[in-house]
Design goal:
It comes from Lentzea kristufekii. The protein is mainly alpha-helical. The protein is built from five helices and two strands. The protein has a two-stranded antiparallel sheet. Helix 1 packs across helix 3 and helix 2 packs across helix 3. The longest helix has 15 residues.
Length: 122
């Protein structure tokens, strides 16, 4: 089984397990992975993405806990349901950034300037 279209950027500061989880949510919500679709095994997806198996396992576990995925011995990991109230990945990343910026003592203006500079590639 080939891996879904997932790309992990280890340099962007978002934990890889969260990137995998968020992209799976987008693929499921977008219909690319409809309910009933089988996902690659943890080992296979980890190998395809160049990640540790524990990283992919955490993403799968998070989605199992929320009822989006189910895993069975013979059926593997399957999309069980559409995410009911999936967190908006951009909003979650923004909240994480704000928390870090505040912990560093950055002002709102400094934080916004940092975002603009990176967004524009400066």
């Amino acid at each position: 089984m080939t891996a879904p279209r997932i790309v992990v950027d280890v340099e962007n500061g978002v934990p890889p397990w969260r990137q995998v989880r968020d992209q799976l949510i987008r693929l499921i919500n977008g219909g690319v992975l409809p309910v009933g679709s089988r996902l690659p095994t943890i080992r296979q997806l980890a190998a395809d993405l160049g990640l540790a198996a524990g990283t992919v396992a955490r993403a799968y576990r998070e989605l199992e806990t929320s009822g989006v995925l189910t895993t069975g011995r013979r059926q593997g990991t399957v999309v069980a349901a559409l995410p009911s109230h999936a967190p908006d990945p951009l909003s979650a990343a923004a909240a994480e950034f704000v928390a870090i910026a505040r912990s560093l003592g950055a002002s709102e203006g400094e934080a916004l300037n940092a975002v603009r500079a990176h967004y524009l590639g400066e």
